[in-house]
UniProtKB/TrEMBL annotation:
This is HAMP domain-containing protein. Pfam families: HAMP, HATPase_c, His_kinase. It is a multi-pass membrane protein. Keywords: ATP-binding, Cell membrane, Kinase, Membrane, Nucleotide-binding, Phosphoprotein, Transferase, Transmembrane, Transmembrane helix, Two-component regulatory system. The chain crosses the membrane at residues 12-36, 291-313.
Length: 597
């Protein structure tokens, strides 16, 4: 009575499948969970810190804005009248007492000078103690002379703040006919510090200036905000001086208490003004959620693939065993006319083949003693070819350098050290582009060798880089060949010291300009045209001494396209300028190479 020996909980297929999944799936799930939690927390903290830094930067700029307009208001004390600086207050006091007709001209000259010192100034006023005033405006709007200017509260505040800068929050220009744009107003009293016998001097007038809200727009334009994000500039009275939600300007600030928003706040250091940000969390962390969702999908695909592979492997492993077991049951019953199909050449295939041979020879055991022979196949291992690695060369150079230092040949040691750094930089073939900082370091190492060889009295190097551009990408080994050409073909033929200047600047249309110029012997017009022709026609020509320039030119065109490359200008006995124009990017590219084992 035969029974089914392949119940699921007893089968080798189930055991292999469960073992395979347990060993692979459980660690994958644990690692994936920990990685996702860590990564999501890090990205959320990074996004929050980024906005905190932006608010801190904005608060500092607001402080700087107050300092700037405070300094502008103080121009009253340095504005010259009659050829003498600092005489404005004395002149206005004297002309006002004597009813001088030049008083209006004096004040208008000052207002016109101040109005165009800063582009966000919209209008300026100078109010005399008797209530009369003069004004100028950039907006070509007419003054409403029925309006009692200045406001009563402005008078009271400037009266209390005798010598300081008074600030009046965002308001409409009601004193102008047809003016709609909101402005802030700064005010300061002008005292006659030279003509008065009093300690503090007589107040001869009050200067007011209206500042457009474009000054805040310039401060916050660097912040990348989503549609539902809101930033506020709030004074110490709770009045909103500025917001990207324009309808809120001039109203009282009320914080959004919803948990859907990330609330951040930063106070200015000097003026007790709050910079408040309310950032919609769903949009703030949208990219993080999308990335986590993508990673989750990839992990899910990996899990499915692992299960499929486990089932396939277990089934492929257990099927031949099942087949052999079935045929063995037939042999046990005395049926030797059986055969197992051999499908593979691995151990299971050998087992099937051995079973077939065993069954075939069992028939001969009745009359003939069966002598079994086991054939063993020996595998030959190919010896691995040893590879000379760059670190062996670096270590050898270091041994030579230390030997030179031990012999007090420090200059030779420095040369070997610089050469070692250059070799390490050159032999790293994995990078197409590097940061400007890395390329600058390589040029410095090369130039150090040239200075040791020719002396500081012959060579000078000057870098003019913007610190913000140091992390931008530049083709690897693009500067050193140009510097080398400048030394050998520009400065060495010249008597006396020569200087190479390397300048990097950001250009319009998101481009990067790199300029290498020298004050060497330069080139004649014929030589310059010949070099330009070689650059235009490429390496198919007999490039001669211009191989470095052409190599850099063709690499740039290969990386960025034919719209980019090397430009060269030169004047005989004056010097040569080589200019590279490439796209501005901070992504360093890596060349993928296949290595044979």
């Amino acid at each position: 009575m035969a029974s089914n020996p392949f119940r699921l909980h007893k089968s080798i297929f189930a055991k292999f499948t469960l073992s395979f999944i347990s060993v692979g799936l459980i660690p994958l799930l644990i690692l994936s969970y920990i990685s996702l939690q860590t990564f999501s927390g890090f990205m959320e903290r990074y996004a929050t810190n980024n906005y905190e830094q932006m608010l801190l930067f904005a608060s500092r700029n607001v402080d700087d804005m107050f300092v700037k307009y405070n300094n502008i208001s103080k121009l009253m004390y340095s504005y010259g009248v009659g050829g003498l600086y600092g005489q404005l207050g004395q002149a206005i006091a004297a002309q006002s007492k004597e009813k001088d007709i030049r008083l209006t001209m004096t004040i208008n000259d000052f207002l016109q000078t101040v109005l165009y010192t800063e582009r966000n100034l919209q209008s300026v006023f100078f109010v005399l103690p008797n209530g009369t005033y003069e004004n100028l405006s950039k907006n070509n709007v007419a003054m409403d002379y029925q309006y009692p200017y200045p406001k009563v509260e402005w008078k009271e505040q400037t009266k209390l703040n005798r010598n300081g800068l008074s600030f009046f929050p965002t308001h409409k220009q009601d004193y102008f006919l047809g003016a709609t744009d909101p402005v802030m107003t700064f005010g300061r009293n002008l005292t006659d510090v030279l003509g008065s016998s009093k300690v503090e001097g007589d107040i001869v007038g009050t200067f007011y200036m209206d500042v457009g809200l474009g000054v805040f727009t310039e401060i916050f334009k660097q912040m990348v905000l989503n549609k539902q994000d809101t930033v506020y500039v709030v004074d110490n009275q709770g009045i909103i001086l500025y917001s990207n939600q324009l309808e809120l300007i001039g109203t009282v600030f009320h914080a959004n208490t919803s948990d859907d928003f990330l609330h951040l706040q930063q106070a200015t250091a000097e003026n007790n003004i709050q910079i408040v940000g309310e950032f919609y969390k769903k949009e703030l962390f949208l990219k993080v959620e999308q990335l986590i969702r993508t990673i989750t999908i990839v992990i899910g695909l990996c899990i499915v693939s692992l299960i499929v592979v486990a089932v396939w492997f277990s089934n492929r492993f257990s099927n031949p065993i099942r087949s052999i077991t079935r045929e063995m049951a037939k042999v046990e019953s005395g049926n030797f006319d059986t055969n197992v199909t051999v499908k593979t050449a691995d151990e299971l295939g050998l087992l099937s083949h051995g079973f077939n041979k065993m069954v075939g020879r069992l028939k001969e055991y009745i009359d003939v003693v069966y002598v079994a022979q086991i054939k063993q196949k020996q595998a030959e291992l190919n010896a691995l070819k040893s590879q000379i690695r760059p670190h062996y060369l670096y270590n050898t150079l270091e041994v030579i350098r230390m030997s030179a230092v031990a012999e007090d040949a420090n200059e030779v040691g420095d040369m070997i050290l610089s050469l070692s750094h250059q070799l390490k930089y050159v032999l790293d073939y994995g990078e197409e582009t590097v940061t400007i900082k890395s390329e600058k370091t390589n040029v410095e190492q090369y130039f150090q060798l040239m200075v040791i060889r020719y002396g500081e009295h012959r060579l000078g190097l000057d870098f003019r880089f913007d610190a913000d551009l140091m992390d931008c990408a530049i083709p690897k080994l693009s500067l050193q060949p140009i510097v080398e050409n400048a030394i050998y073909h520009g400065i060495m033929p010249k008597s006396g010291k020569g200087t190479i200047r390397i300048s990097i600047e950001k250009l319009p249309d998101n481009l990067l300009g790199v300029t290498v110029d020298d004050d060497g012997v330069g080139m004649s017009e014929e030589t310059l045209e010949r070099v330009r022709l070689k650059l235009a026609q490429g390496s198919s020509l007999d490039i001669g001494s211009s191989i470095g320039l052409i190599n850099v030119h063709e690499r740039i065109m290969g990386l960025y396209g034919h719209g980019y490359g090397v430009e060269i200008n030169s004047s005989q006995h004056i010097g040569t300028t080589v200019r590279l124009v490439i796209p501005l990017t901070k992504e360093v590219s890596v060349r993928v190479e296949r290595h044979s084992s």
